[in-house]
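Input.
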Amino acid sequence: MRVTGNSACEQDVGTEVPEISIRPEFVLKHADTFAVLDSYGDIGASALGEEGVYHYGCRCLSGLTTRFCNRRPLLLGSSLRDDNLLLSVDLTNPDAILPNGEKLDKDTIHIRRQSLLREDAFWSQFEFRNYGSEAVVFDFSLEFKADFVDVFEVRGVARETRGKAAEPEIVGREGVEYEYEGLDQQTRHTHILFNPPATEINDERADFRIELHPGEAKVVTMSTLFGAASTPSSPFISHLGQATSEYEREAASNTLVSSTNEHFNDWVRQSAADLRMLTTHTQHGPYLYAGIPWFSTPFGRDGIIAALMFMWVNPEPAKGVLRFLAANQASELDPSRDAEPGKILHEFRYGEMAALSEVPYRNYFGSVDSTPLFIVLASAYYRHTADREMLQLLWPHVLRGLEWIENYGDQDGDGFIEYERKSEDGILSQGWKDSNDSVFHADGTLTDSHVALCEVQGYVYQAYRGAALMAEALGKMDISQKYHEKATRLRDQFAAAFWSDELGSYALALDRDKRQCKVRASNAGHCLFSEIARPEHAQIIARNLLSKQMFSGWGIRTLAEGEARYNPMAYHNGSVWPHDNAMITQGLAKYGHIDEALMILQSHFDLSKYIGRHRLPELVCGFPRTERSGPTHYPVACSPQAWAAGAVFMMLAATWGMDVDALQGKLTFRNPRIPREITRFTIERLKVGNAELDLVIQRHRHDVSVNVLRRVGDVRIVVDM
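Output.
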């Protein structure tokens, strides 16, 4: 059976995934706690098994349902605030029999429910208001439970034994305390508290008898704490105010982008808010967690790519990602974790099963591309910020990463980087398309795990060039020259080994015997992103990527229609991924194919109009777009997902031809384009090193102009048309 694990890696775990019938409506997240809730704000009332509140990889609240006189309230509507901080749900009473035996007509009592995650606590606040003409006494109940199940158990990984749950302790009528001692010797707590105290309470239910006069309102608050504290540090309203102030303060440090199209603005705002929600502050700085529900944790590849996408909006997440990954760089050989000296992290997990090595992801290194991409991000961050102090801090880690590429990445000395799983329980396919069936030959025959992926060679080429830039900045001219030369050799060697005239593309990969996997896939588009592609090859690839076999109308498919394993419903073999398309968009722009890049941006803008809250998911199915119809959703796609949220920012920079170079004090726009429904973009607080700019990009009848509204500091603006 398949369980998605990375950006969503697929692994054989020997059990069946619980059947999924509907997706939850809403997610909340703060720090290392996240909640998956249905449209009522409830947990566990739907057929979906992933709902709950998770704290450091453990589901510490697995049930929470509401009852009005022993019946489920009627749902009027629910919405998540545009900053992702607060879920508001409007409910009303059903037709009900009151405790005195009288009938209460539906729609008499309005219930406003608000849910918030903050400081290791989950809050549910209920405000009841009587819109009837008579006083009413009614019963309201909350049913709850805490199963302390590890996130991997929720995903379907069976366990032979578990830790011990203590008997729940009822604390007067004020609350219930749950406790679980894991096999990792860690004790996990769930403290449920009520204000005001319940009328009656047991270890799974609290009942409140509430009297309301006409027009009167009363509030019941349930606070659930997951740490050692047994009482909240401050009231609900104070936590909400603090969360709002923090969000506004952090948002003020971002570059702002707006347009003349409100739908586009909604997409941009939602994407920025999602990246803010997925940002978790570690001891090393802010880190962009990969996605919810399964990937709310540091991933190397995902964090790096999302940080690259968001760099021009705010470079601080890139700094935090780099510092975290440097601190967790592998220092020794450990086949059980696919770890080798100098290798960059694939995945870092909290939780009982990871701590006990029941899954290998506590500190796991099974990705072939995280290490070169780490060097790419380090170089891009330095070029964007001119932060020399950070460069000096990172340089030893860059060198160790380069040593890994040369000593471990190139396993057979042919000059290309291959992967081969060492961990028996680790990931088989170790590129970003990490499904077990994502690398194959033209006839559909799967490769073994000794594979050189085309895009990974491009990342290495990009890493070599970035290393040369950083070495030159540090005055290490011999090292700079070495990696310039290695980049040149690799580019030549790559073209000879990977190009296929038959495909009109680079082969997906080379297998163990150095045979080309002659498959048309989106991977070749990443070779434009990294600039390893020769210009004459890039022109052919650009044309083929936008062909009807590759381009669905919603974006570029991961695999061309007609290939042996093509399936538009498959995770990596025919679906459309926004991050994949964003990286290809930037690659197209680098080779001057701005109109093709604009087609992809336009397709994703159209896609965002059909997705709730304009939130692009991890992926959608690759069925062809049809007139007046929306996309086909991939039912278990993560949403929000960091690199899906970041896609719009990379696509915008690509279609504007925008390049930030703080080392030269220069901002360049090359042949900028604007989507057809937009006439003007306004960019505020764009940082180029220590300088800051406000700009307007305006479409005219025959061209596009870039005008400076405000400039602070020394920076040149170059517009090449």
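Residues 388-409 form the longest helix (22 residues).
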